[in-house]
Amino acid sequence: MIQSKMAASILQRCLRPVQTFSKCVNYRSIARRCLLSSAYTDTAVWEQRQKDPQDLGQLASLMDRTYERKFPVSSLVIGRFIDSLSSREEVDQAEYYLYKFRHSPNCWYLRDWSVHSWFRQCLKYGARDKALYTLKNKVQFGMFPDDFTFNLLIDSFIKDNDFKGACSVVEEVMLQESFERISTQILSLSALSKHLATKPELSWQEERIMGASLMLVGLKQENSVGFSARLLGYALIGKVELSRGIHAVFHQMPLIWTSGYLGRALAVMDAVCSDLRDVKLSEEVLDHVEKILQELSVISDGQSDTDSLLDEEDQLERLKLPEYMNRFKELKERLLTQDKSDPSSLESLVSALTRQTLADCEDADLSEYRRTVRDWEAERQQLIQRERETKEKNLKERLKKQAQ
Questions:
Q1: In this entry, which stretches build a coiled coil (predicted)?
Q2: How far is the C-alpha of 338 from the C-alpha of 238, rounded, in Å?
Q3: How many Cβ atoms from other residues are within 10 Å of residue 200's Cβ?
């Protein structure tokens, strides 16, 4: 157990509580959903790094003394501290030191391998809620994981059927605009579609997040899944726009501030009708979009509590709703006539895409991960050597002063 000054009250005062979504874990011995293979989630490559065994209590005391003397803690020390965690209790206690390091002069030097190690330790010791908490509070803790780490987290939630928790991780991927890796796209689409399949009651903030995630990841896929996802994404964002105004859409989100998200949704349908031979739109998604338009028509016809949030530009966009509804009916009829609608649900389309592509993506990811770990280890050894040389130099200087 760490012998240190655990200032839990500091965290309670400085951090706003963040809701986590890892309470619905199912530990029964039933078949569990898991997208990534055992080779992808295996820790062998990570565990093969050169060991640097440390006493956790001594590291904690060293950091306490360093902070008391107003000196910065090095990235090597906090990295060793994370690597040395060996229980859930120690993971919980480590939160304090992550926070202290993030708010120290060396805050920018939390190494990528230390971030990766933190999330691996959380998963290893059953502290996925702590992983999500530090991820949601990334500015306070400095936790900005890479794509491979994001994949491990999303898969872990999906494996236990906690699709809401998986979507919470996808939200962070979306906010960091990290949908470049195909495997991350597939895992994110899987989490989003599985959560939507449970028919959750979403707040307008959750609809905005869900819409932005679907739209941004959908834009990366030029197939039926991608176009269905971006259609629903645009529609969900358009719902927020027409009910609460365009400012509510792009505030603290990686979205453009130009009005007309429902128009962009219809443009997706038009593109499928006009140009794309092999692409079909999910009937389930089309039904969802139709329901959104119907809900907006009710809001538009009556007096809403959110009307005061709309400026003149927002009011003009709301006036286009009848046009959007007529256009939607026309495009849906064209899709049916041209056999461009797919009876499969979005979840089924994503599952089929996963079976077709994820295995090949894993091979490329694992090769890159091995290279990344080697690079991290080489850089870490350079830092250790520099640390050793600095200590030797300081010792010689002290001995020289004592001899004078």
A1: 366-393
A2: 26
A3: 13
Task: Take residue 187 and report the two structure tokens written for it.
Answer: 């895992």
Q: What is the pLDDT of residues 34-73, one digit of tens each?
A: 589 999 999 999 999 988 888 999 999 999 999 999 999 9
Distance (Å, whole) CA 262 – CA 247: 15
**Token pair 């338009």 in the structure block, residue:** 293
Q: What is the pLDDT of residue 403?
A: 73
What pLDDT score does 303 carry?
57
The candidate with the shortest Cα–Cα distance to 239, out of 219, 212, 221, 218, is 212
Nearest alpha-carbon partner for 77 in 379, 396, 383: 383
Instruction: Return d(Cα 97, Cα 222) in angstroms, integer.
Output: 44
Structure tokens that stand for 350 in this block:
């994503």
Please report where in the chains the tokens 């739109």 appear, as a residue.
Answer: 281
List alpha helices for 142-245, DSSP H: 147-159, 163-175, 182-197, 204-218, 224-244
Boundaries of every domain in the chain: 58-145, 202-343
- Exposure class string for 147-175: b at 16+ Cβ within 10 A, else e: bbbbbbbbbbbbbbbbbbbbbbbbbbbbb
193, 251 contact by CB (below 8 A): no
Tokens of residue 30, six digits: 């039933």
Listed in sequence order, the residues at least 6 apart from 302 whose beta carbon sits closer than 8 Å to its beta carbon are: none
The whole-number pLDDT of residue 31 equals 34
| Six-digit token string for 175 | 């906010």
Give the global pTM: 0.86
Tokens coding 14: 């400085």
CA-nearest of 118, 160, 172 to 141 is 118
pLDDT digits (tens, 9 = 90+) for 279-319: 999 999 999 999 999 999 887 665 565 666 777 888 888 88
User: What are the tokens at 11?
Assistant: 């965290």
Q: How many CA atoms lie within 13 A of 20 on its CB side?
A: 17
* 43: three-class secondary structure by DSSP: coil
